[in-house]
């Protein structure tokens, strides 16, 4: 039957051509007419696509930062850092610039056995670190998931849960075997939230970030809260000896191998940085000033930049919408433009805007009732698009963008067209590039403030570790913004090894004089 039908169509076309020839229209003219109609159709389609691309570009243009804008960000960040070193004023200053009471890097003479708790996301890690000298380390760790109810519930219960997990970790690994009855493990507490420190062992939580909102913790000493939870278990032989921000751990872990490593940066769920600052440049410093204490690591908490409007010139309507719907509106403005926690949501909000303008999936919402529930879930569910999706789509080099199509299908957007996938990839590239450029501008300020002939910056976090295009864009932009010699180095296990080193340096300084070595930072 199919063959018969095909023959009929061929015969019909031949008959039409014969008829047209009878009335004086030649085959050449027919060809010209056909080609003309074809090119008119193609031009129409091409024109439609150009208009479409122009509209998408108009939506993405506010996310495309110029070098002039980046240098203005740098100037504003540098000013805010300087102002916050003068006096603590949480109302007028965007940044906290907390002194960490860590004055020295490792000398290579550190040794001993340490526990580390690393709390900074939806899970936490307990590590057992054994330092054998010259910063050779053995490490054993375990990750514990935090029930969502504890992230939002009573703070004391969170710390009780951490203590319970510490007990399980010690018992499972038989760490107390052969220890004397009065032995206590020294524990470094890696705590990746803004804290006002009064010493290495005293730290008052200023505010929760990254989705935490436990009650009765803000305004209290988190070191004391953890120690009290440990003591409530009676037979848990642990003393908390140091509160360490994750950026400080990142710096310390790297400084054991690079003598010019004077800054640490986290580019992950959150984003933050620390660096060594001379005490002479810190008018608000109230601690010791002597020949042995000339510098201190400053925890910048630079994710809060923009609180008072210094970033308004680059914020978009999408940024404002994300901020208003977040758990911390009007806080962590800079972080919300860069960190992995928010990158996917920025992309999702842009996609929603494009759908509402009928640029993406045109007509699908009305013409495909069976798909509408999935689309609606994606459109209304905050946090349904992840930074990993952004990275994978941005790196999609398949001819048919099949990687992008697979990701979209997995989140409920079925059968996306090639044009849909192409536009979404452009959105991901644009949002990721902006984040990398802003991160580069911030790191450039650190390098300039350190004012060294060569600087190594220790970096950790999922964006730097796993998002290759982000890392390349970061390095490329930094090279344009900074003329000084610099290198970005991935810091391995900073939150574990680096924090253990902080505790180890503190122990060494209490038992022996400070030793400055030529090949290691002091």
TrEMBL record:
Residues 263-505 form the Hexokinase C-terminal domain. Its EC number is 2.7.1.-. It comes from the Eukaryota. SUPFAM superfamilies: Actin-like ATPase domain. InterPro entries: ATPase_NBD (IPR043129), Hexokinase (IPR001312), Hexokinase_C (IPR022673), Hexokinase_N (IPR022672). GO terms for molecular function: ATP binding; D-glucose binding; fructokinase activity; glucokinase activity. Keywords: ATP-binding, Glycolysis, Kinase, Membrane, Nucleotide-binding, Transferase, Transmembrane, Transmembrane helix. It catalyses: D-glucose + ATP = D-glucose 6-phosphate + ADP + H(+); a D-hexose + ATP = a D-hexose 6-phosphate + ADP + H(+); D-fructose + ATP = D-fructose 6-phosphate + ADP + H(+). One of its GO terms (biological process) is intracellular glucose homeostasis. One of its GO terms (cellular component) is mitochondrion. Residues 56-255 form the Hexokinase N-terminal domain. Signal peptide: none annotated. Pathway: Carbohydrate degradation; glycolysis; D-glyceraldehyde 3-phosphate and glycerone phosphate from D-glucose: step 1/4; Carbohydrate metabolism; hexose metabolism. The chain crosses the membrane at residues 20-40. Belongs to the hexokinase family. PANTHER family: HEXOKINASE (PTHR19443), HEXOKINASE TYPE 1-RELATED (PTHR19443:SF16). This is Phosphotransferase. It comes from Adineta ricciae.
